[in-house]
Every structure is written in structure tokens, then in C-alpha cells.
Amino acid sequence: MEDSFPHDPAQALTTGCLKAEKQFLQHADSLPKHDRSGSCAIVVLVVDMEVYVANVGDSRAIMSADQGKKLFLLSRDHRPSEDYESGRIV
Questions:
Q1: What is the pTM assigned to this prediction?
Q2: b/e for 1-14, b at 16 or more Cβ within 10 A?
Q3: H or E segment and range at residue 14
Q4: Which of 4, 26, 69, 81 is deepest in the core (most CB within 10 A)?
């Protein structure tokens, strides 16, 4: 279990994703031949009435409520043409 959970769910998700990536890369590096092109994941954590979303890579998540009458966008696409994304990667 991550030390920052449950008092800081956002940090716990961030740390958990970084640890998972590190473990994956270590495993991939131990193989004779591997593809390092990337990965993606959406992780949703619900704590009481709060919803935390970690978006790694090119993924999209939505949530519905009220028997599908309401729709909530939980992530944004990672497109280099978007200002927030080009600012992050440049």
C-alpha cells in the first residue's frame, strides 16, 4: 500500500503510476527484445464522495449518473495541438 493513501489520494495515484512504470521498464529491459513505444491507463479511485482519476497515455474516461441521463468527462485527450498539452511537453 502507498504511504500517502488514504490521506492524499492524488499523490498515492501519482506515486503508484510512477512505480508501475518503473517496474514495467525494468521487466522490459530484462527481455532480449522489446517494444518501448508506450502504454496507456485510466485509474479511477473513489474515496467517500470524491472521485480521483489518473490518466496515463492516450486514454479517455467518462462516467454516467442518473441512469445515464448525466455524463461526466473524467479525462482529456493528450493531443499535441492543444495548448495545455504542448505547454506540458515543450
A1: 0.65
A2: eeeebeeebeebbe
A3: helix 9-29
A4: 4
